[in-house]
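Your task
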Amino acid sequence: MPTRSAVDVFRQALPALQTGEVQSWLDLCTEDVVFEFPFARPEQPHRVEGRPALAEYLTAVTSRVRLDGLDALETHQTVNPDVAVIEATATGTVAATGEPYRMSYVVVLTLRDGLIARYRDYWNPLHTSDRKAAA
């Protein structure tokens, strides 16, 4: 069976991201997965380590934001098939307020043994629609 690239795994993860199916996301991650948010505000997590912590984090995020979709999706496969850069704009609704949610992200995705091992998520912490929503 051919190995999946980081872009392939991200595309497989998209439906779970859009529907908030946390377990489907976790199934694509290593046990020791690390999610990093280098630009997170001080009161938000900058790093989430391991599947149990990621389950808790993703459950909280999906309860705060209902995603309608990902627009302007661009994937950039690096020369290493286990690493990709993804650009996307998420749109949806902030659950607490009903306000529209729109945030652009740049993600550096790294696989190990075909699973997500590291997910570095670069987003704008000053974006106003994000203040009451997700990291």
Notes: The chain has one domain: 6-130. Confidence is low (pLDDT under 50) at residues 129-134.
